[in-house]
Amino acid sequence: xxxxxxxxxxxxxxxxxxxxxxxxxxxxxxxxxxxxxxxxxxxxxxxxxxxxxxxxxxxxxxxxxxxxxxxxxxxxxxxxxxxxxxxxxxxxxxxxxxxxxxxxxxxxxxxxxx
Length: 114
Hints:
Elements: H1 2-11, E1 21-23, E2 33-38, E3 44-47, E4 49-52, E5 55-57, E6 59-61, E7 68-80, E8 84-87, E9 94-98
Antiparallel strand pairs: 1-6, 2-3, 2-7, 4-5, 7-8, 7-9
């Protein structure tokens, strides 16, 4: 019974639970972080995601951004304990729009049927 329950849980598709991300192409450079600039806010450092032994990507969760248009830019960052911080120039900006969640038209044609 336990194996059946475990198998049932593993069958649930994880893509349904996925949040949207902004993701870069892989880099083979030595990078530890990505500098993310969303709109005109403060740049934040996000750890890179390791793809394999020789490459990494920037992956930033945008599931919590406000409804409306946004612009995001990124840098590759290497933070070395001896040499300090080194950083690339900004990427080309990515413009995107988070759609609104409001449904403006209510259901119509309600009635009782036999």
